[in-house]
Amino acid sequence: MSEKVRWGILATGGIAERFTTDLLTLDGAEVVAVASRTEASAKAFADRFGIPRAYGDWAGLFADEDVDVVYVATPHHAHREAAGRALEAGKAVLCEKALTLNAREAEELVTSARDRGLFLMEAMWMYCNPLVRRLVELVRGGVIGEIRSVQADFGLVGPFTADHRLRDPAVGGGALLDLGVYPVSFAQLLLGEPDTVQAHALLSPEGVDLNTGMLLGWDTGASALLSCSLVADTPLTASVTGTLGRIELPRGFFFPERFTLYRDGRDPEEFVNEDDPHSLRHEAAEVMRCLRAGGTESPLVPLDGSLAVMRTLDAVRDRIGVRYPQEALVTPA
Ligand SMILES: NC(=O)c1ccc[n+]([C@@H]2O[C@H](COP(=O)([O-])OP(=O)(O)OC[C@H]3O[C@@H](n4cnc5c(N)ncnc54)[C@H](OP(=O)(O)O)[C@@H]3O)[C@@H](O)[C@H]2O)c1
């Protein structure tokens, strides 16, 4: 792969706009094409960012020989098809979170990428944030001892009206796949896949989760108390507590500007992120680093980790009784 990495953007919604803005701040990142379900939207997006080619269907993007990597920014229900077709066309893929609707679809994608020797990564940008990486390094280095508990929440008040994608079961709506994926991914970054999953939720009349509490357990005795909501403005904080101390992340824990380490008998220690914590360019840079090195998987966002998160989200949905219409059967935990 040349120093330049040539991107194709698939879908033109809110996150595609934000990602493209941040991507274009990186040296060597070139956006050569964009695809939308409509030509007008592709063209408008291309005009906004000065992108040379705009396709009114996905096939044009997949056939474009100049595209090295496709960024999939559709709602969840379309991730498997979009990312799957991109892989079949020989493209590397960065796919928005949650990776797919469920673990079965995620396994299909991961198998496809691995069989073809192609790069695939879930766009779990939190894992690429420099301060989150520092936190992981500290915790793995033993500064707080053995982890006993994790807390994290992500709740917003829209209001999300009944026609919003977050309220639509057909596109994987609900708090869990959009917001709950962050607290679950945070806990699993530190503790791995849980041994037990309990959950309780308020469901909407359409059958998506509006307000969900989760209790994950590990055989070590560690637990994680997590929540997500579309109807409550929760603190958006996180903490991890061990036998020797704890780390607290303030509001916006998944793009932290700072965190505080508390250790028995010592003054609190502040760790600060000087490097644009809200930017998506850290995940884009990680994709480009991997592609230039010929890697097929990011060590920061490993596919086995994304699969494990999808299995937990499946288990939560199993407990709260949420099933998307296109699912024959939710994979049991
Ligand atoms: N990393 C983050 O911080 C972050 C933040 C927000 C969302 N996300 C993730 O990004 C994804 C998209 O979220 P968003 O907020 O950008 O949503 P959005 O604003 O609704 O945009 C999604 C785009 O996907 C396309 N689309 C809509 N319905 C579709 C359908 N039925 N089938 C195929 N394509 C469809 C549309 O683009 P076209 O009209 O061009 O086809 C639409 O503009 C979700 O998976 C979400 O979890 C990530």
Features:
333 residues; alpha/beta; 8-stranded mixed beta sheet; 6-stranded parallel beta sheet; 14 strands; binds NADP nicotinamide-adenine-dinucleotide phosphate
Briefly say what this structure is.
By secondary structure, the protein is an alpha/beta fold.
Structure characterization notes:
There is one protein chain. By secondary structure, this protein is an alpha/beta fold. It has 9 helices and 14 strands. The protein has helices at about 15-25, 40-50, 60-65, 80-90, 105-115, 130-140, 175-190, 280-290, 305-320, and strands spanning about 5-10, 30-35, 55, 70, 90-95, 120, 145-155, 195-205, 210-215, 225-230, 240, 245-250, 260-265, 270. The strands form 2 sheets. It has an 8-stranded mixed β-sheet with strand order 8-9-10-7-11-12-13-14, covered by helices on one side. α4 (about 80-90) runs parallel beside α5 (about 105-115), α5 (about 105-115) packs antiparallel against α9 and α7 (about 175-190) packs across α9 (about 305-320). The N and C termini lie far apart (about 40 Å). The mean pLDDT is about 95. Bound molecules: NADP nicotinamide-adenine-dinucleotide phosphate. NADP nicotinamide-adenine-dinucleotide phosphate binds near residues 36 and 125.
**End-to-end CA span:** 40 Å
Number of strands: 14
Give me the secondary-structure category: alpha/beta
Low-pLDDT regions: none
| Cα-atom radius of gyration | 20 Å
* Helical content (DSSP H or I, runs of 4+): 25-40%
* Major beta sheet summary: 8 strands, mixed
Q: Percent of residues in beta strands?
A: 15-25%
Which ligands does the model contain, each kind named once?
NADP nicotinamide-adenine-dinucleotide phosphate
Taken in chain order, the helices and strands follow as EHEHEHEHEHEHEHEEEEEEEHH
